[in-house]
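Incident log, structure service

09:12 report received: a user says their structure output differs between two submissions of the same chain.
09:20 pulled the input from the user's history:
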Amino acid sequence: MRAQLPTTQIVLLSTILGMALLGNVVVLYYVPDPMTRLGVGGVLLAPIIWLSARLGVVSRVSQLLIKGHKRRQFLKLRGVVDEFIDEVRRLNWAADGAKRGFRNKAEASRDMDACENRLHQIVGRIRKSAGYVTPMEAQADPERVVGIRGAAEAGASDKG
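09:34 re-ran on a clean worker, output below:
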């Protein structure tokens, strides 16, 4: 699963998906020639499938249809972890390309250093995404830490 799309991109992709679906309905209903319907309907099917996959329509619909399906929690944390995994893949790609001789070693080394810096930044955001604060944030705002600990303890007492 990839990171959450920006709202403007979701709105744009959803609008395009709706227009493609509407166009397909209009073509399939109003065009009398079967070969034209098949051709235009098939051409419009590609963006419908791509946009549906990009927006995660299938997973959202399946979540609604499956009874008793527990909704995924910690979406923000999941997005940051997915971002971390993507960055590890970039780091691996750069190292592997340099090792095999496909990339210039100096350029690959710069890319690996940049990946490592981004990984450190992402790791710094993981705790925040999980709802926990860093020790520096705890010193700056002790009430926030108490609020989080209180919520976690309340959740633990509900389970026990």
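09:41 both user submissions now match this output. Likely a transient worker issue. Closing.
09:42 reviewer note: Residues 91 and 112 are 5 Å apart (CA to CA). The radius of gyration is 23 Å.
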